[in-house]
Amino acid sequence: MRKLLDRLYLGAAALAACCVLLICVLMIGQSILREMGVRTGATNDVVAWLCAASSFLAMAHAFKHGDFVRVTLLLEKLAPPRRRAFEIASLAIACLAIGYLAFWATKFAWESYVFNDMANGLLALPLWIPQTSFVAGAWLFFIAVLDEMVLVLRGARPTYVTAVEERHAHGDFSSDI
User: Fold this and answer.
1) Which residue has the higher pLDDT, 57 or 123?
2) Chain mean pLDDT for the chain
3) How far apart are CA 160 and CA 59, in angstroms?
4) Which H or E run includes 121?
5) What is the C-alpha R_g of the chain?
6) Is the separation of the CB atoms in 56 and 105 below 8 Å?
7) 151 φψ region: left (φ > 0), alpha (ψ -120 to 50), beta (else)
8) CA of 93: how far to CAs of 32, 90, 96, 97, in Å?
9) Is 17 exposed, middle or buried (0-12, 13-18, 19+ CB in 10 A)?
């Protein structure tokens, strides 16, 4: 199960990276085509959807690898037993909040599908199509946080903490800036 989850997080991150690459290609292409007098209005809609997709699809991987913003000032001052309790409480609150987000994102996308909502921009596309990346990313993020909570409840250290410690041990403090 561990390998499957890690591959799922990595696959979503790779898909997010492809979205960022596609944004780059579209923006450069749009700049070139504008100079040639070609209209490229719908590109802005696609770029906006790809920005959202890249953000949400990368969340689970970023969280698991310690690349998410965390406020650790309090946790670093606590003794290990209290730190573990606070970590579990934080993960439980995060599970509730992200589960809530994922549920409503799914409901929102489903309603877009049922009511056949179309995009308001120049590209007439059913809205549920770009919303699917939001839904997938939200559920993956929920699974990643739940995964961490289960690990911590079983007595393991959070993987996002060990990932940061490993980077620091190798002299990489770039994520702390």
Assistant:
1) 57
2) 91
3) 13
4) none
5) 20
6) no
7) alpha
8) 47, 5, 5, 6
9) middle
Residue-wise pLDDT for 113-172, tens only, equals 999 999 988 888 999 999 999 999 999 999 999 999 999 999 988 888 887 778 778 777
- Cβ atoms of 13 and 57 within 8 Å: the answer is yes
The CA distance from 103 to 139, in Å, is 8
For residue 12, how many other CB atoms are within 10 A of its CB?
22
Please compute the mean of the pLDDT values over residues 46-67 and round it to a whole number.
93
Does the pLDDT at position 173 exceed 80? no
Look at 33-42, 103-112, 167-176 and tell me which has the smallest mean pLDDT: 167-176
Do the beta carbons of residue 151 and residue 13 sit within 8 Å?
A: no
Three-class SS state of 66? coil
| Beta carbons within 10 angstroms of residue 41's beta carbon | 10
Give the CA distances from residue 102 to residues 11, 19, 77, 131, in Å, rounded to whole numbers and listed in that order: 19, 21, 33, 12
The pair of structure tokens assigned to 120 is 């308001």
- Helices within the chain (DSSP H only): 2-35, 42-64, 73-77, 80-114, 128-153, 159-169
Where is mean pLDDT largest: 63-67, 70-74, 109-113, 154-158?
109-113
In Å, how far from its chain's centre is CA 104?
16
